[in-house]
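Provenance

Sequences were taken from public entries as deposited. Structures were produced by running a predictor on each sequence independently, with no templates supplied. The record for MFS family permease from Leifsonia soli is shown for reference.
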Amino acid sequence: MTGELDLRPARRRPRIRHGAGFWVVAVTFLLVMAYSTVPTPLYPLYQQRDGFPPFVITAIFAAYAVGVIVSLYVAGHVSDWLGRRRVLVIAVLISAVSALMFLMWTEVPGLIAARFVNGVSIGILTATATAHLGELRSVARPQENAVIAASVSGAANLGGLSLGPLIGGIFAEFLPAPLMLPHLVFMVVLIVAALAVLLVPETVEIPEEAPRYRPQRLSVPPGARAPFLVAAFGAFSGFAVLGLFTSLAPTFLVSTFLAPDHLLAGATSFVVFAAAAAGQLLLAPLPVRTQFGIAIGACGAGLLVVAAGAVVPALGVFIVGGAVAGLGVGLLFKGAVMTATSVADPARKGETLALIFLIAYAGLAIPVLLVGAALSFATPTAVLLVFIAIVLVATTLAGAIMRRRAPRVRRAATGQR
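Predicted structure for MFS family permease:
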């Protein structure tokens, strides 16, 4: 009997503290998001190899976004009762499976399938990791402003999206087998990350009997319809801007600026997403109303500069405008997530975050598909200008409404101090 009792501690997985677990989850979040955008500068190589038209690129990208949306709908909220850590590990391993698919199935149908599976991992990951980070930080630093956790979460999300194209561009420009090696490297990295997440503390109480499964409810938190819908509108319009630079930036660089360099394609996307992530971190100490004011100005000014760069054309102006717009979109998206978190029922936080990410990734997919279709009968510059006009109005309007509601959102998001 005593021997059995003595053996039990040896069977338990070692655990790390909540503070360290916070950073493990943040780094894992960043790595998985980075891998999701590694293919961005590789699309021209796939196109050159297989000879498909630009619309196929948007179809491959849309498969990713559809995977995100589907998984958010069917599994984005299950961590509320299955546990954050368990679901997070599953999401990371699914991303590793998508890397294996890229290695084993290299034709266009394989690219579409691999991107869909990769999107599934992101849909499961985003809401789960965002909720897990907030809960880990609240235990490790109970007196800290909740904006800090939201800023780190947003920076991991958008920072990962920014690193992916740069890493992909480096592989494409300087390393051998650029359509194979990055997927192999990330498959190994993701498996290691999944093992690390196993050591992170769980932050939700897992019921002995799981509730009956149902897909994500497409409903807003009770009594908070107006602020949630505004936040969703901001997330949708902001991700529409990011989607343009994630999927079609290499196409515009070649057709409008005659710049086929793969590293440049990755660096362009990197600058936009890095500005979004940096803005979330560096401007976190500012009052929420001030952050929304900066978001409105940066989105408007940046998109206008992007348009000017496309018309002239001037590549440097185009990239600078993308960076300024990225800064604004980062702040806008963080504000949308904070708004959704502040009005969510604590018992359904994962569900609410899953819905806001579902809407955001719809903004990533739908406008890009429309842009890709428009490129078949209109010039890239004309399509870009129409797109910019629409998202400029949308992001400015959403930011202005959320700024007006910011004092109430800030009190809710701050919580106990």
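The CA atoms of residues 100 and 187 lie 7 Å apart.
The mean pLDDT is 84.
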